[in-house]
């Protein structure tokens, strides 16, 4: 099997007016989906949610604060899974609850030597 990273992208900044119960219910749907991947024994690594603080290095020297959200799309996190092909990885991602309020980018990972 090959390894793939699923980069979870959200449309805009998460709403801050959700009640704790609504946030918990939304996360429960996501957790159930991830539990299904775990049960299939294809999850290699579960990426944590990314913080809003970061640095961007350009031209190998210039360090700026960031990332800055200048578009409607932000990276919310990632998962690393096993699948036989990128098409199979895409089929797995299609069932994610995030699709519809965001997107998932699939990238193959090169094996470490």
Structure commentary:
- The chain has 2 helices and 6 strands, in the order E-H-E-E-E-E-H-E.
- The chain is of the alpha+beta class.
- The strands form 2 sheets. It has a 4-stranded antiparallel beta sheet with strand order 2-5-1-6, with helices on one face. A two-stranded antiparallel sheet has the order 3-4.
- Strand 3 and strand 4 form a beta hairpin.
- It starts with a strand and ends in a 5-residue tail after the last strand.
- The model has no long low-confidence stretch (mean pLDDT 79).
Write the layout of secondary structure elements.
Layout: E1 2-11, H1 20-39, E2 43-46, E3 54-58, E4 62-66, E5 73-83, H2 86-94, E6 102-108
Antiparallel strand pairs: 1-5, 1-6, 2-5, 3-4
What is the CATH homologous superfamily assignment?
A: Dimeric alpha+beta barrel
**In CATH terms, what is the architecture?**
2-Layer Sandwich
CATH class: Alpha Beta
Spatial extent as radius of gyration: 16 Å
* Structural class computed from helices and strand pairing: alpha+beta
CATH topology: Alpha-Beta Plaits
Shape: flat
**End-to-end CA span:** 16 Å
Task: List the defining traits of the structure above.
single chain; 113 residues; alpha+beta; Alpha-Beta Plaits; 4-stranded antiparallel β-sheet; 37% strand
């Amino acid at each position: 099997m090959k390894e793939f990273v699923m980069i979870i992208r959200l449309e805009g900044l998460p709403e801050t007016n959700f009640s704790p119960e609504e946030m918990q219910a939304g996360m429960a749907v996501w957790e159930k989906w991830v539990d299904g991947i775990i049960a299939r024994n294809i999850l290699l690594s579960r990426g944590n949610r990314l913080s809003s603080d970061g640095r961007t290095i350009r031209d190998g020297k210039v360090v700026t604060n960031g990332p800055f959200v200048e578009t409607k799309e932000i990276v919310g996190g990632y998962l690393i899974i096993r699948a036989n092909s990128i098409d199979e990885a895409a089929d797995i991602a299609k069932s994610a609850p995030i699709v519809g309020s965001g997107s998932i980018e699939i990238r193959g990972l090169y094996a470490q030597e």
